[in-house]
Amino acid sequence: MASFEDDLVSLSSPTTNPWSSPLTNFVYRSRCLQPNPCLLRKRRDSSTHSEEQAADEDTALLGGQRKDEQPRNRLRFWGELGLFTWAVLATAAVIVLAVLSQHQASHENECSTSPAIPSVPSKPTNSTKPTKPPGKRNLIFMVSDGMGPASLAMTHSLQYDDVLVLDQHFIGSSRTRSTSSLITDSAAGATAFSCGLKSYNGAISILPDHTPCGTVLEAAKKAGYLTGLVVTTSITDATPACFASHANIRSEEDLIAQQEVGEHPLGRVVDLILGGGRCHFLPNTTSGSCRGDDRDIVNLAQEKYGWNYIDDREGFDSLKLGSEAKLPLLGLFAGYNFPYEIDRRNMNDIYPSLDEMARTALTALEAATKDSDKGFFLMIEGSRVDHAGHSNDPAAQVHEVLSYDRTFASVVEFLNKSETEGVLVSTSDHETGGLAVARQIHPSYPQYLWYPEVLSNVSSSAEHSARRLRAHVASGGERLYDFISIELVQKGLGIMDASEIELKSILDAPQLSTYSFADMISRRAQIGWSTHGHSAVDVNIYGSAGSEPLRGNHENTDVGKFLREYLAVDVNAITDELLNKSKSFSIADKGQTPWTGNIPTEEDLHLAEEMHRSQSLSINSW
């Protein structure tokens, strides 16, 4: 039988051992010949007599040559010591060379002038002045408000090939906390994107000391870029507001509307607006207004700041998907929110889709910058993923995610065809609903199942069903039980097994019917929700070529840092300009009220959150 030493000789032979260099052989032998601690613990202590006896036995076995071998043993000892010393020195030399090589490569990257991938540190600072990019470029930033990783997982199961366009551009994730809470709201989340700085929940590009921070959109406009905002909620809602206005609290939507059209310390900073929120632009003396005063912001936009205004599908279609658009363009197609995509597809003659608006904006902005050495900055928000999360409506959310994915695909296609360099970055401000693609319905051990076909059978959102219910009640409510059971539950939700208890709960509390309808769907699909609010879950980051610095996990402020560094715009200079102009700038008809609104109390901030939640569920928002 071959001995262990024979095996080692065989392994170290150049003909059999691929690791035959002295260094690797030394490392291998060092590891293999380490004493076994278990064997050492079992070994008895040797006496002097036993050691001498063992030595005598060795001498006998070697044919009496023991004394003659001593000089050779000394030579072997010094030889092995020399080999060990050489191996240590060689290892040290390899480490030193590797460190020097890495340092040199890092230095070369820092000195590189390549514009393709701007360097973005993991922790943003505001002290460095931007370097001017060498060429014209476009930047499209997309926000999937309220969409977390589970929203994608849920949507995958409804796709034939189980893959979205978004999946092919996944590059990282973002941490979302604000300065006031581990769970952010949309205002603080969007401020991190627009200013690259953290702030409190409710702040619209305002810092915790209630001073304004310059935004990437404002800086882009100052640098000569054209700018645009496209959303499916009110253009005065938190996310779009944070790019083109400043307010101490997000509920100052009348004030935000004024700033967005040009009543702003920097003047007009947006060139294209497409979305909802018309009620905040109309005087409170007219139908469809939700303003607190009689100011006509549409008229202000047209007469003072030169906006071209459209407010219906016919006006949108006249733009010919952007080829006939004239900037500045203000398009307000809904009183507040657009319908959910699951409902809008049946009202296509009234409301344009997010994809249509995005493609219109891209075409219009590209045409308008054709002869310019600057490109454009466009923010696109899939706004109502968040609202579906607030109402815990999985069917509505799936269709919002699919709509967002189609829009993302259109932007990717635009960039691939455009002759101008451009980058697309997409992320969420937070997750909404605490969604889990699983739900334990019974106290016994749960089944590892969920049922996407339940969502496939739904033809209208819980919000739309609640709207129809209230309209029916308002018109007299004849045969109300049958209307709920047949028209709303069976035909609208695709549910054929509704219980008497479920139907009676809707009948008894129609004001809560949005939640009731959504829960009926979620239970049958075995979809779980932990909240009607936001969660602290990290959210995904997606990007096209050129967005590589955002790979990995980042603070949400790193996304804001990337946006301004890609465009090489000076956001800090905008902050300084806002602070200087704040001393003399005032709002019409507001007296001594600061242009950013009054400083809110904690109660004001709480009420603003409640207002946002109610708006996300409003049946009168269309």
UniProtKB/TrEMBL annotation:
Its EC number is 3.1.3.1. Zn(2+) binds at D145, D386, H390, D429, H430, H534. Keywords: Hydrolase, Magnesium, Membrane, Metal-binding, Phosphoprotein, Transmembrane, Transmembrane helix, Zinc. It catalyses: a phosphate monoester + H2O = an alcohol + phosphate. Residues 119-130 have a biased composition (Low complexity). Residues 42-67, 110-137 are annotated as: Disordered. The active site is at S186. It is a single-pass membrane protein. One of its GO terms (cellular component) is fungal-type vacuole membrane. The keyword DNA-binding does not apply. Mg(2+) binds at D145, D237, T239, E381. Belongs to the alkaline phosphatase family. This is Alkaline phosphatase.
